[in-house]
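Incident log, support desk, overnight shift.

02:14 A customer reports that sequence design results differ from what the structure should imply. Their input is reproduced verbatim below. On-call engineer (initials T.W.) acknowledged and began investigating.
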């Protein structure tokens, strides 16, 4: 098989560029996520059947570590927590003290990272995309939820369907 010098040069240049980079794209995504005990933390609740999904992985933003979910008012309240894939102690965030309710415009809710069953309830005022955030401050963790300016957020099932069409 004959390989051109141009192809070899391109491949070699790409290898050099990759080896010079201290962080590749996957490392940057992982390092920008909320990780506790080297485990990523996700939004887990009724909006996603409590499943672990990269779509709901908490990532660094100006508001803390956040993710988005599409909500409908007629399905509220939405119960949720922030947790790793195994609901591990130290990264299983529910409310610190009752009643554990967040409404639009409410103050951040203090979280318990060693939660067992303390789910947070959220009541959206209107249908739309909401931003769920964990904020670390004063040695503790807090949750906020507010309506995003995003108009539409497709679910993973919708994305897969679009990719097949």
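02:41 Re-run completed on a clean worker. Output:
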């Amino acid at each position: 098989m004959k390989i051109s010098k141009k192809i070899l040069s391109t491949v070699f240049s790409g290898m050099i560029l990759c080896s010079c980079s201290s962080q590749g794209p996957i490392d940057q995504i992982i390092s920008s996520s909320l990780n506790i005990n080297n485990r990523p933390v996700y939004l887990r609740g009724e909006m996603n059947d409590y499943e672990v999904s990269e779509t709901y992985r908490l990532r660094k933003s100006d508001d803390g570590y956040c993710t988005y979910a599409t909500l409908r008012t007629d399905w509220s309240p939405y119960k949720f927590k922030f947790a790793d894939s195994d609901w591990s102690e130290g990264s299983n965030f529910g409310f610190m003290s009752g009643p554990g309710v967040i409404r639009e415009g409410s103050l951040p809710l203090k979280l318990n990272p060693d939660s067992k069953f303390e789910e947070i309830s959220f009541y959206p005022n209107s249908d739309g995309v909401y931003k769920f955030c964990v904020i670390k401050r004063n040695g503790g963790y807090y949750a906020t939820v507010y309506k995003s300016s995003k108009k539409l957020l497709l679910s993973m099932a919708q994305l897969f369907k679009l990719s097949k069409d």
